[in-house]
Specification:
251 residues; alpha/beta; six-stranded parallel sheet; three-stranded antiparallel sheet; 10 helices; 37% helix; binds nicotinamide-adenine-dinucleotide; binds zinc ion
C-alpha cells in the first residue's frame, strides 16, 4: 500500500508521463506471456515459431503457435489497460509505448500508442504484396484454417508484427526514444525487460532524469533503476494507483 501511494504521488505531479508495457499487462486478459512462470517459451522454440526465417521455412508452425495464443485476438482489455487510458484522459500520460501486438490499449481508450512490435491489424502477402485486414481471416482462423493469399494462393501471408530477425518500425522506435528522453515519469508495466532494443528505453528515461516506476509480477533484470517497484498483478495495482492519484490531485 505504501508503495502504491508513493507511485501515485509521483504520478500525480507528473507533467509528461510515459507508460511502457509488455506482455504481462495482457496476461489478465487471458493472453499468455512469453517468459515468466506460465510463459509460452517453455513449450515452443522461439527461433522456430516466431522468427522471420522460421516463418519462411514453415508458416504453418507460426500459425499453429498463434492459434495457441488465439484468445488474444479477441481478448478484452483488463482494468490495467483502462487505468492507463484514464491517466491519459487526465492529461498525465502522454504516450503508451507497447511491445504488445494485441491492440488492447487502443481498445481501452488510449489514443497515443506506439507499437514497437507492430500489431495483428494488417497482413501482407510476401509473394504478391496484397494486403489484408486481420478481420478477413478471423472467422476461418477460429475454425483452425490458417491464412492464405486469396490473390496468388501463397502461404506467406504475414501479419505486420515484428518477428525475431526483423527490424522494428524505425519511425515508431525513434518517437518512443524521444518520448523516453523527454518524460518526467516513466512507468513500466508487465515487461521482463529483456527484449532489445525495446528494453533500452527505460535506461534512456532513467539517464534523462525521469522518475522510474515499475509494476510487474516478479523482479526483472533492470530492477535497480526504479525508484518505486510494485510486485503484483497489473490489473489489481494500476486501478488502485489511479484512485490514489485522484486523491492527491484533489488535495
Ligand atoms: P515477457 O513475456 O518477456 O514478460 C512478461 C512479464 O510480465 C514477466 O516479467 C511477468 O512476470 C510479468 N507478468 C505476468 N503476468 C503479469 C501480471 N498479471 N501483471 C503484471 N506483470 C505480469 O514480455 P515482454 O517483456 O513484453 O517481451 C515479450 C515479447 O513478446 C514482446 O516483444 C511482445 O511483443 C511479445 N508478446 C506479446 C504479447 C501480446 O501482444 N499480448 C503476448 C506475448 C508476447
Ligand atoms: Zn499473394
Amino acid at each position: 500500500m505504501e508503495e502504491i501511494r508513493r507511485a501515485a504521488e509521483i504520478i500525480a505531479k507528473a507533467k509528461h508521463a510515459v507508460v511502457f508495457t509488455g506482455a504481462g499487462i495482457s496476461a489478465e486478459s487471458g493472453i499468455p506471456t512469453f517468459r515468466g512462470e506460465d510463459g509460452l517459451w517453455k513449450k515452443y522454440d522461439p527461433e522456430e515459431v516466431a522468427s522471420i526465417w522460421g516463418f519462411k521455412r514453415n508458416p504453418r508452425a507460426f500459425w499453429e503457435f498463434s492459434m495457441e495464443m488465439k484468445d488474444k485476438l479477441f481478448a478484452e482489455p483488463n482494468p490495467a489497460h483502462y487505468a492507463i487510458a484514464e491517466l491519459e484522459r487526465m492529461g498525465i500520460v502522454k504516450a503508451v509505448i507497447t511491445q504488445n501486438i494485441d491492440m488492447l490499449h487502443q481498445r481501452a481508450g488510449s489514443r497515443r500508442v506506439l507499437e514497437l512490435h507492430g500489431s495483428m491489424e494488417k497482413l501482407d502477402c510476401l509473394d504478391c504484396g496484397e494486403t489484408y485486414d486481420w478481420g478477413e481471416f478471423l472467422e476461418d482462423f477460429n475454425k483452425g484454417v490458417i491464412p492464405r493469399c486469396r490473390k496468388c494462393n501463397s502461404w506467406y501471408v504475414k501479419p505486420r508484427v515484428v518477428l525475431f530477425g526483423e527490424q522494428l518500425p524505425q519511425r515508431t522506435l525513434l518517437t518512443a526514444m524521444e518520448e523516453s528522453r523527454k518524460c518526467d515519469v516513466f512507468i513500466v508495466v508487465g515487461s521482463s525487460l529483456v527484449v532489445y532494443p525495446a528494453a533500452e528505453l527505460p535506461y534512456m528515461a532513467k539517464s534523462s532524469g525521469a522518475k522510474m516506476i515499475m509494476v510487474n509480477a516478479e523482479p526483472t533484470v533492470a530492477d535497480n533503476i526504479f525508484d518505486v517497484k510494485i510486485y503484483g498483478k497489473a490489473g489489481e495495482i494500476l486501478p488502485r494507483i489511479v484512485e490514489e492519484v485522484k486523491r492527491f490531485r484533489q488535495t
